[in-house]
Amino acid sequence: QVQLVESGGGLVQAGGSLRLSCVASGRTFSRYPMGWFRQAPGKEREFVAAISWSGSSTGYADSVKGRGTISRDNAKNTLYLQMNSLKPEDTANYYCAARTYRGADVYYTIGEHYDYWGQGTQVTVSS
User: Fold this and answer.
1) Confidence check: pLDDT of 10 > 80
2) Which of left, alpha, beta for 50 (phi over 0: left; psi -120 to 50: alpha)?
3) How far is CA 31 from each of CA 26, 49, 54, 107, 124, rounded to the nearest angstrom?
4) How far are the Cα atoms of 16, 33, 103, 110 from residue 99, in angstroms, in the given order?
5) DSSP 3-state assignment of 33?
6) Strand pairing of 78-83 and 92-98?
7) pLDDT tens-digit map of 23-69
């Protein structure tokens, strides 16, 4: 029903920046709370950032607070994650996720709350 396609990952030097994008299918994108998660090899998936369906509320993991900015353009069915001052610890596969369950205009930080996931885009930060 919903397809999510991430892009924008790549190799970047420590201290650099990347902007990740996630394009979603479906006419109800504007009602989907969205999130970014990441997973490094051998580690559990972790929350990065989330945004409510209207964009009025956002939340961030402590590890990226002050360096990451989540945003959305509902007219373009696109979710963004701007990452600045990248660190080697940011190296991971980054996934966007959508929650299609109708609810209040809030964001979600737990992966189990989301029911659609993209294929991921790799971010590698060299030291």
Assistant:
1) yes
2) beta
3) 10, 17, 7, 12, 32
4) 30, 5, 10, 11
5) coil
6) unpaired
7) 999 778 888 999 999 999 999 999 999 999 999 999 999 999 999 99
